[in-house]
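Q: I'm a student working through a structural biology exercise. My instructor gave each of us a protein and asked us to get a predicted structure, then write a short paragraph describing it. Mine is Spore coat protein. I'm not confident about reading structure output yet, so if you can add a plain explanation after the tokens, that would really help. Here is the sequence I was given:
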Amino acid sequence: MSDNKKNLEQISSSLAKLFILDAFNKHNVSSEHRRQLSDDEKQQLKALVGNLQNQVNEFLEKQNQPKIAKASKTPEPPKNTTLRDMLKNRKKS
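A: Happy to help. First, here is the predicted structure for Spore coat protein. I'll explain a few features afterward.
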């Protein structure tokens, strides 16, 4: 499970880099024209990304919980019984 998570994070990271480079190329922004981020801005971005990752993980866990709960329930017998079955049950009682 953790291998899948690491693989997913790696794919997400490479896709994000690809989208950013594509946006720079689309608007003719070269590395000389990009402004360097200050340490404070870098920390804010890291905190933002960490917060978003936590929110995504919580969302995914919530989505997986109902599936597990539904799978563990035992199926109930159908409540729609025929009149014949109801009479047989009444006679047995």
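A: Here are two points you could use in your paragraph. The chain has a mean pLDDT of 82. The CA atoms of residues 17 and 24 lie 11 Å apart. It's a good idea to check both against the output above yourself.
Q: Great, thank you!
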